[in-house]
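[SOLVED] Need 3D model of a two-part complex

Original post:
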Amino acid sequence: MPISNTDCIVTIENLSFARNRHIIFDDISFTIPRGKITAVMGPSGTGKTTLLNLIGAQLTPQKGRILVNGQNLAKLSKKELYIARRQMGLLFQSGALFTGLNAFENVAFPLREHTKLPESMIQDIVLMKLEAVGLRGAKDLMPSELSGGMARRVALARAIALDPELMMYDEPLTGLDPIAKGVILQLIQKLNQALGITSIMVSHDIPECFSIADKIVILADGKIVGEGTPEEIKQSQDPSVKQFILGLPDGKIPFQYPAENFSEELL
Amino acid sequence: MHLIQRLGQLGLKLCGDFGRATLFLFATLFRLPRPVKSFPLLIQELYSVGVLSLIIIIVSGLFIGMVVGLQGYNTLNKFSAAAQLGQLVALSVTRELGPVVTGLLFAGRAGSALTAEIGLMKATDQLSAMEMMGVDPLWRVISPRFWAGFISMPILSAIFSAVAIYGGYLVGVKWLGLDNGAFWGNMQSSVDFYNDVVNGLIKSVVFGFVVTWISVFQGYDTVPTAEGISRATTRTVVYSSLAILGLDFVLTATMLGGW
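Solution:
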């Protein structure tokens, strides 16, 4: 097994990935520092979620490799992969709570599947996790009875049930009201600082990401256009980065979807 | 030329689909059972697949038995053979109507529900979430549903047949006044356990296997959108019905004998 840099939990080397001939990543390399919050940002459709799927080995890169704790997950057998994934948590944009189970059972699910803990201990752990996200009182509610922000918090409690080393958040703030956003942001920060969980956050909320991230990676058109601390990114002179941060409708990243000449098409 | 191309594409797609469905089936069937954890899941699915289908099976069985009784009586009566009604009802129900109609109803009631449920779990990322937790959805979601369908279908078919024969009895004996002893006696002397009852049971086992396989595969393989789920559900019912009717002919042809 190759020994990777121990300061980096995830190392991405020369990654290329295409879907139906549409190139999503074109030879990108970067690292995720251990114990830090890294925000991966970029316009919609640049494959931010795809990147999380690649790190979790739900997709396989066409070129290059991704090392998680020095392991290339794409090369593992299904059984080994499932064991390696217990060290990772992924918070889905939709929450992805199991509809047939209440909040308590959702959080207990990974514990029941992977551990032989007695019921009393499972109960204690689940209540602790729910308390951490402030929803111990909602333990008997079904997913359909939870609001969007609450569902995401229950999903977060479920994702940290097995105490993962690496947490991945897929658009954790999208579609939430300002208060719920604040709650989630605070939780991400708290988990990172109190438990030392490495966090990868995929998002396009600039002020929120800049406030909590230690490292920011900006993707556009299959390439990394900016990488560094929030301060460095703010100082960046790259036209794509500037356009993204300032929210300009047209620029290096074009307003128009590629099309043939307008006047020709009209005639 | 264009037509031939399309035909070739269709053929390749069919082969690919069938191959994937077969791999999926093998992955679902051949795995070490975990009795302590699997059993409660199986019981739960037996309830939602089997027990919840009971009402439609019983009501349909009763009506079909009554219709066969009524039609049979009128036809047999022309030849003064109305006493043979018990035989007619029992044979047509155990050999053909029981397994086939139960299979069709099962595909409509339980099969479509399985497809929609699994498809929705896929569309809302629940299956991905399971994978990311290191839990294999084939084992946790698909396998108990598959076995529940496989076990329920023969039992439902047997219940259907029993209720249908009772429906024939109600019409023939209670309403039209056939002799009670002749009805049951003729039935007993002409229905053979192996040739009729067991063959019907074999059919229902095959139908149960095929319908459940189609249902869970269509759910698992669905395009994870609202449109994809609705298409998958439709496909489940269409493919299952065609498979049942086609296989029924094949099975009847191979098991024919001992009339």
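Edit: The CA atoms of residues 222 and 228 of chain B lie 6 Å apart.
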